[in-house]
Amino acid sequence: MSVTAADVCNVAKSQIGYQEGYSNGHWNNIEKYAPAVPGLEWAQGQAWCATFVSWCAMTAGAADLYPRTASCATGVSWFKQKSRFSYYPAVGAQVFYGSGGGEHTGICVAFDADTITCVEGNTNTNGSAEGDGVYLKIRQRRDDFVYGYGYPSFADGSVSADPKAATFGYTVASTGTVTAPAPAPSKTTTKPASKPVVSVAHINAARAKDIPAATGHTTYPAEVKVVEAALKAEGFLSAAYASDGSWGTMTDKAFTRFRREVLHLTGDDATGAVGIYSLTKLASRHGFTAKA
User: Fold this and answer.
1) Are 289 and 196 in contact (CB under 8 A)?
2) CA 56, CA 14: separation in Å to the nearest integer?
3) Which of 67, 107, 196, 226 is spaced 20 to 30 Å from 233 by Cα?
4) What DSSP state is assigned to residue 268?
5) What are the tens digits of pLDDT across the range 114-147?
6) What is the distance between the alpha carbons of residues 158 and 234, in angstroms, rounded to a whole number?
7) For the chain, which residues score pLDDT lower than 70?
8) What gap in Å lies between CA 225 and CA 204, rounded to an integer?
């Protein structure tokens, strides 16, 4: 069976939430993709957005349909030399950003009249070209930062907003998207487990009581443990403090680091009482629900 645009997009989407290594107080560009792509092992520790696209293509069985490179500029040249470059989005296309397309790249998984939805490596919540992980980004199609798109030669084509889509073997469409494969049928239906709920009010009550109290004091320990586990997964809280249910000074410092280093908050926004914005962001990354 031929590899489709959906195959590549679904591989890319499966990586959303992955983050590179963290050491010495900063993200370090050490990731799993470069060592796994033959010929790109040397790119470990370098900017890895193009390497991520190469890995997705290889993993989906479409290695020959995308450039194998760690360079965005090389990727643009590769598609242009094959006359498969467009300034219109398409599902499965490699999108290039910045001057000449040489600053950042990702995979377009959906588009409409105004926006593109892309999976991008080495970016962050702000959408910059330098980042910490794999994110799903929604960008304005006509943003000056968006340079253009490389069209892989899928045997079954894809959908594109380009009026000349047929020249690439694609179909013209005003919108395009791809969905994850349907799960295999099952004889029994299991109700998904409900997500833990953590209240900002409860966390701040724990913070107010646990920090000044004697070691081991706990207030709302079940909810605190959920946050502690998330902060441990982020690399900000050691195992010794990650499940005691006490919002002590170490947990408080870990949450401050999350706000500063992941959410890039500064000043009063990065310290003090826990806010609904920062708790919701942590919750979205670690499978729990935040409420006021």
Assistant:
1) yes
2) 10
3) 107
4) G
5) 999 999 999 988 755 568 999 999 999 999 999 9
6) 37
7) 1, 127-130, 179-193, 215, 242
8) 14
